[in-house]
Amino acid sequence: MKSWYRIENRVGDRTSVYLYDEVGGFGVTAADFVNDLSGIDGDFDLHINSPGGAVFDGMAIYNAIRNHPGNVRVVIDGLAASAASFVAMAGDEVVAERNATLMIHDGIGIAVGNAKDMLELAGLLDKFSDNIAAIYADRAGGTPEDWRKLMRAETWYSAQEAKDAGLVDEVIGGKSTKKMPTNTWDLSLFQHAGRQDAALFPAAKAPDPPPEPATQPDPPDEAGFLMPALDLGAIRDSIESLDDIPLQPDLIKAAVFLAATDVPAPDPAPTPTPDPEPDLSINLPALRRLLREVTT
Hints:
By secondary structure, the chain is α/β, with parallel strands linked by helices. It has 2 domains: 5-197, 2-enoyl-CoA Hydratase, Chain A, domain 1, CATH 3.90.226; 232-266 and 275-295, no CATH class. The protein has 9 helices and 8 strands. The chain has helices at residues 30-37, 55-66, 83-88, 115-140, 144-152, 159-165, 232-238, 249-260, 284-295, and strands at 5-8, 15-19, 44-50, 72-81, 93-97, 101-104, 155-158, 170-172. Strands 1, 2, 3, 4, 5, 6, 7 and 8 form an 8-stranded mixed beta sheet that branches. Strand 1 (5-8) and strand 2 (15-19) form a beta hairpin. The protein is elongated and about 110 Å long.
C-alpha cells in the first residue's frame, strides 16, 4: 500500500517532505512527523496536499516546523484545508501552485453527554479557534477577531485569493517534469465540498443587520400643531354645564386646536424657538360655540 507521507533526502540540495495525507488519526501523526523531522539538519521544502485533521496533532507539527533550525519553504500543491492550513503558516516562506486551494474554518468537535459536557466542548472549541485565528493574524495581519469571522464562514481561497489575503507569499505555476502524487478527499465533514460550492468567498462578508426603522413623529396639522385626541363624548356631556365646571386639560387642548384651525400655516423650516407657555384664559362663550360645532 503506497504511503502518502514521505521524506526525500537529496545530496547537496534541500530535503523534500510530502504531507499528502490527513493530519493525525490514521494519517500523519505528530509523533511520526516530529520523529522524522529530527533527522533533517538543514533546510527543507514541505509540500502539502491535505484535508486537515486533528487540531492537537496539527498544532504539534506547526510548532515543530517553527522550531526547526533550518529554513522551511511550504508549498501548497493541492489542498491545504482545516488543520493543514495553519500547519502551512509555519513556513518561513509559503507559496501555492496557481490552481491550489486553502480553506479555513472554526473548530469542529463531537461530544457525548449532558448539557454541561456540551457547554464545556463549546468553550474548548472557542479557545482552539481563537488560537488558530491568532496564527493567521500573525502571518497575514489583521486581528484574531477578523479571522474568526472568516473561519466561522468557512472560507475557501484560491491561490491568488490566499496571496491577496496575506496567507501566501507567492503564487507559482508552470509545467513540472516530475509526476506528483495525487489523492482525493472526503470533505463531507465541512460545510462545503470545496471552493466551488462555498457560499462565501474571501471578498464576501456577512451582511450587516438592517437598520432599525426610524421613528416618525406624528404629522402636524395644517396649522403646525399636533392633532390632539378629542373625546367628543366628554365634550358633549360638558356643553350644558360648561359655566359650572373647571376646565379639564383635554377640553383646553380641544379649544386651542379648534381655535387654531383658521391660523395660517407657518413658513417652511422656521427657526426653532422655545415653546411659549400656554395661554389658559379662554372666552367661555366662544368655547361653548366651538364645542357645539363639534357635536353637530
